[in-house]
Specification:
The protein is an all-alpha fold and 216 residues long. Helix content is 86%, strand content 0%. Pfam families: MotA_ExbB (PF01618).
Length: 216
């Protein structure tokens, strides 16, 4: 019985911040908050993907490229380009969705402001124009969704710009790392025949001189 009594109060405690948010900015501000959660969730997912998935996949790609027997033929270069493009396409896969969410945020805020202003004008048409305080309160509540949408859009735009720079830089550095890895692997190969030290060469020359019979 106490659990049954506590569950509605717990539900009311959870929903009370949402109800206050809806009351302060309208239902569209909840939509903006959900879009912001999705946007920041995708940003966090890309950070984890970079650390846990992309870096090991990049190391495996470099290892497979170095393990090839030849690296300068047309088929080898085409195969390298296909593998790098596939790796980078997986890295930038959520980028169109991030841009879409960034564009939706200010539009949703503007829609919330328009609907709020319509509600304010309807209230003024019913109650008259003598309540300036109520009108100012309604206008302030109507502009809150636009403020929230623009704030989320600015933060999302900063992340999208930074993410595009990271992808472009990774595209440039990946080809450099593949070429440098091949050069390092070639320079690390031991020569097939080591040069003999000077002492051994001198001993060999002495022995060859002593083994030759003297002329009569």
């Amino acid at each position: 019985m106490p659990d049954l009594l506590a569950s509605p109060s717990l539900l009311a405690g959870v929903l009370s911040p949402i109800m206050r948010l809806v009351d302060s900015g309208g239902p569209l501000i909840v939509v903006i908050c959900l879009i912001a959660m999705l946007l920041f969730g995708l940003a966090l997912e890309r950070g984890l993907y970079w650390q846990l998935v992309h870096r090991p996949a990049r190391q495996q790609l470099i290892h497979d490229w170095v393990a090839r027997t030849e690296h300068h033929s047309w088929s080898a270069l085409t195969h390298r380009e296909v593998l790098t493009r596939a790796l980078l396409s997986r890295l930038r896969a959520p980028l169109p969705w991030l841009k879409l969410l960034v564009m939706i945020c200010p539009l949703a805020g503007l829609l919330g402001t328009v609907t709020g202003m319509i509600h304010v004008f309807d209230s003024l048409a019913i109650a008259g124009t003598g309540q300036a305080r109520a009108m100012a309160d309604g206008v302030a509540r109507a502009t809150l969704p636009t403020l929230a949408g623009m704030a989320v859009a600015v933060v999302g735009l900063l992340f999208v710009t930074r993410f595009e720079r990271v992808v472009r830089r990774e595209d440039q550095r990946l080809h450099d790392r593949l070429a440098r890895a091949v050069d390092d692997a070639r320079s690390g190969e031991s020569p097939t025949r080591e040069p003999q030290p000077a002492a051994h060469r001198a001993a060999g020359s002495v022995s060859s001189d002593t083994s030759e019979p003297p002329h009569a």
